[in-house]
Amino acid sequence: MKKFISVLLIICFLINGLGSRIFLMAEDLPSYCDPFSDDYDERECNRYLLNSSMNSIQDLKKQIEDAESDFETAQALATKYRQEAESLDSEIAELNVQIKELEEKMVQLEASIKENEEKVDELNQRVLSRMESAQVSMHFDPYLDFVLSATGFDDMLRRVYGVEAITSKDKKDREDLKELIEKLQADREQLDKDKIEMDEKKEALTTKRAQSIIMRNYWLEIQEETEAQIEALQNALEDERQNYSGILANISDLSGLPSSQGMTAPVPGASISAGVWRYPASFGGGVHLGIDYAVGIGTTITSPMNGVVIRSSDSCPSYGYLGNGCPYNGTGVAAGGNQVTMIGTAMDSDGDSFVYGVSFFHLQSGSPTGTGVVMQGDYIGKVGSSGNSTGPHCHIELYYLGPGDMSDIEEDYLYRDYSMSFNCGWGAYGLGRLCENGVGAPCRLNPTYYFGQ
């Protein structure tokens, strides 16, 4: 008892955040945990301490799941941006090649333009020189002088046609060169536009690439922070599990509790509206992994054997509906409504003791018992219709965990990392874990063989 009192004086447990811890002094505990109070109740205090610790464990598990989910999301986002960055790198490289080709083409066109401009200047110079020479020697229009100096009419016609041919050729050359210059100039202007467009594209892609690099760095930062967060949560979870073990170690009456002589019906007098392993055809015939006790709301549910309540969830309204997923906070089986899960021991007719798991679903709001030791016939909760339910009933599932008595529970079974189905799964997978098919522990049992009608 002294050891128990000393434990009560200062208990360390987890609160919200990344494993922050505070000290809960004796004056912060309920009055029934104060050994000097008239309200002191060792069993109720044990339940309170275990429930607080178990809630912390469940909360930490949920935080770890959330952190791992966030980590997976960050990884997916990083992969997306990394792929985008690689794609942009490829586009940038291709555009750089295109820009280089355009620049080379521009250089060639500029050289061609310059060459043609020189030809135009040369031709113009020849025509002007010829006209100037004729004007100096004849002192009047060279073309007219050339025509009038003909020796006869036939000669004059030839000279007229010759002059026209020369002037036409000059004009044609000028027009061709002018057209070529205009075309080359237009090409040059187009290339300038193309270069501007390419530069704009390159700038935009470079910006996107920089953004991708930033996102990649952001992911690395998120990765480091998330990994550190997960590690901290896992360490905190291990600490809280040790705290839970420490609390159980101070429950002096656990190892001394005997196994029950068989099991009793948890809802005496109730009728079974649906059995295992399928719903009746009138209900749709789907998978049904437990039995439903149909009885009025508020009917008391009792423990079928001696044991320990390891999980208690009470966050749903008393009345749910078909398809309701409550509870949503990860403290219980989704859609199971308010619920209690326990581990207990019972002896068969030969006196051999075995360990079982039991889950009670759809309880009335405010009725589930807390975590801690329960004896056969002790209060578990009250019938409700919470979660995925269309009417008042208690759905109960039974699991076989292996041989052992209460001391084995304390030393082993309480500390196993069971899922909410005691690792027996749900749906079609749950049907693959039936003890009656020769599956070893953990496996599912037909409650009617143990509880009776």
Mean pLDDT comes to 77
What low-confidence regions span 5 or more consecutive residues with pLDDT below 50? 1-27
Largest sheet, strands/sense/barrel = 9 strands, mixed
Q: Beta-strand level of the residues, as a percent range?
A: 15-25%
CATH superfamily of the domain at 260-451: Glucose Permease (Domain IIA)
Tally of helical segments:
7
Keywords:
single chain; 453 residues; alpha+beta; Glucose Permease (Domain IIA); 9-stranded mixed β-sheet; two-stranded antiparallel ribbon; 7 helices; 49% helix; disordered N terminus
What's the arrangement of secondary structure elements?
Elements (H helix, E strand, L loop, with lengths): L1 H8 E5 L6 E5 L16 H97 L3 H7 L4 H97 L10 E2 L9 E4 L2 E2 L8 E2 L2 E4 L5 E3 L3 E8 L24 E10 L5 E11 L8 E3 L4 E4 L10 E11 L2 H6 L15 H5 L11 E3 L2 H4 L2
Parallel strand pairs: 3-10
Antiparallel strand pairs: 1-2, 4-7, 5-6, 7-14, 8-13, 9-10, 9-12, 10-11, 11-14, 14-15
Helix pairs in contact: 2-4, 3-4
What does this structure look like?
- This protein is of the alpha+beta class and about 450 residues long.
- The chain has a domain at about 260-450: Glucose Permease (Domain IIA) (Distorted Sandwich).
- The protein is about 50% helix and about 15% strand.
- The protein has helices spanning about 1-10, 40-140, 140-150, 155-250, 405-410, 425-430, 450, and strands spanning about 10-15, 20-25, 260, 270-275, 275-280, 285-290, 290-295, 300, 305-315, 340-345, 355-365, 370-375, 380, 395-405, 445.
- Strands 3, 4, 7, 9, 10, 11, 12, 14 and 15 form a 9-stranded mixed beta sheet that branches. Strands 1-2 form a two-stranded antiparallel ribbon.
- Strand 5 and strand 6 (about 285-290) form a beta hairpin.
- Helix 2 packs antiparallel against helix 4 and helix 3 runs antiparallel to helix 4.
- The longest helix has about 100 residues, at about 40-140.
- The chain is rod-shaped, with a radius of gyration of 46 Å.
- It starts with a helix and ends with a helix.
